[in-house]
Amino acid sequence: MKDLGFKEWAQKVILASKKDLDLKWIQKLYGNHPIIYYFGIGERIFLDLKKVKKIIRTQFPQPLVYYFGMGNVSKMNLELLMPLWGLDFSLLVGVDLARGSFEDFSQASRLLLLALKNLNSGTLKFKEIEKNKFEAEFVFEKKKRKIISYYQFDCCTDFPAEIQSGYQILYTRRGGNLFFKISPLLRAWLLEKNQGMVVFQELIHHEKEYQNWAKKIQSLLKGFERMEFDPYPQKEYQRFGLAERLLVFKKLD
């Protein structure tokens, strides 16, 4: 991966956005590091995630998260903050159809993780397990974490071996449409092996779209109940023309 000049770019974003962005909530995690302006997410979803995290910590102290559509590392689309902080994973297994080199994965992950205030930077290690399969290990909030990433991996027709015996959380960010492309047989298997939650994070233009999207997803999730969040006021959408929303389903006992 070439030098993206990320800090210089982020500083320009900061200067242009001071009047529009209130990201004090995320500064609690990242301090004043310019990485905080990369995410484009608002405080409302952060508050929703706090509710989810509370449930996860009570029911799943060592959660395994399956993250499909993880992001193209060569284009800096990798996103780790939400599954790390919000889902509190011990092991995250991520897959993406895009190409990804070990250099790209380690550099993109390092950029994101080293900005975290509660990360023990001395524990951060990377390993190339095999072609298109990479690993990162570190300690965050005094808890050991591991990320295993597969690239050139088609989540619509296959699943990673690490979730074969079951997993706690199915997650995607801006990959909701991909969920409908997963083969029906594989999708049914994924939901059967799921032991806890299905979590979608999407960009939404207005509240009606959010409710329609929720109904569409729920039609495929038999045996799950939707977790309710407070509606967003219209001004939250008008601010940037859209808002990042969370949709969570809990598996019934």
What is this entry, summarized?
It is built from 9 helices and 9 strands.
SSE topology sketch:
Layout: H1 6-17, H2 24-30, H3 43-59, E1 64-68, H4 81-86, E2 91-96, H5 102-113, E3 119-130, E4 133-140, E5 143-151, E6 167-173, H6 176-181, H7 184-193, E7 194-204, H8 207-218, E8 224-227, H9 234-238, E9 243-251
Parallel strand pairs: 1-2, 1-6, 2-5, 6-7
Antiparallel strand pairs: 3-4, 4-5, 7-9, 8-9
Can you walk me through this structure?
The structure is a single chain. It contains 9 helices and 9 strands. It has 253 residues and is of the alpha/beta class. The chain has one domain: Vaccinia Virus protein VP39 (Rossmann fold), CATH 3.40.50. A hairpin with a 2-residue loop joins β3 and β4 (133-140).
Identify the notable features of this structure and list them briefly.
single chain, alpha/beta, Rossmann fold, nine-stranded mixed beta sheet, 9 helices, 9 strands, disordered N terminus
Instruction: Name the CATH superfamily assignment.
Output: Vaccinia Virus protein VP39
Number of helical regions: 9
Would you give the CATH topology? Rossmann fold
Order of helices and strands: HHHEHEHEEEEHHEHEHE
> Beta-strand level of the residues, as a percent range?
25-35%
Low-confidence stretches: 1-7, 9-23, 29-40
Helix and strand content put the structural class at: alpha/beta
- Total number of β-strand segments? 9
Report the mean per-residue pLDDT as an integer.
Answer: 82
Secondary structure: helix percent: 25-40%
Report Rg: 18 Å
Please identify, by name, the CATH architecture.
Answer: 3-Layer(aba) Sandwich
Number of domains: 1
CATH class: Alpha Beta
Biggest sheet architecture: 9 strands, mixed
N- and C-termini, Cα separation = 46 Å
Strand order of the largest sheet: 3-4-5-2-1-6-7-9-8
Q: Which word captures the global form?
A: globular
